[in-house]
Amino acid sequence: MEEIIVIRARDPDGSVFKAVMDALKGKRAEVVDVAAPATSVLRIGELELHHKHRRVLMA
Fold first, then answer.
1. What letter does residue 10 receive in the DSSP assignment?
2. How far is the CA of 42 from the CAs of 11, 32, 36, 39, 52, in angstroms?
């Protein structure tokens, strides 16, 4: 079963990112860099995040 995990954190020195990646070591994982969207909908593959409406949809 595939899962998508989204983590939002202040991480000025990169230590949180390193800790998460260390915890995932040896597991199948993919890091996707997502820029701030121009609209209120963020699309990642078939996943749509509607921030203003607090909804997540699969296409």
1. -
2. 21, 13, 8, 7, 11
pLDDT tens column, 23-59: 988 888 887 776 665 677 788 888 888 877 778 878 6
pLDDT at 38: 64
> In the structure encoding, which two tokens stand for residue 31, read together?
């890091």
**In Å, what is the CA distance from 54 to each residue of 15, 41, 47, 49, 57?**
29, 10, 13, 8, 10
What is the SS3 assignment for 51? Answer: coil
The CA distance from 25 to 5, in Å, is 15
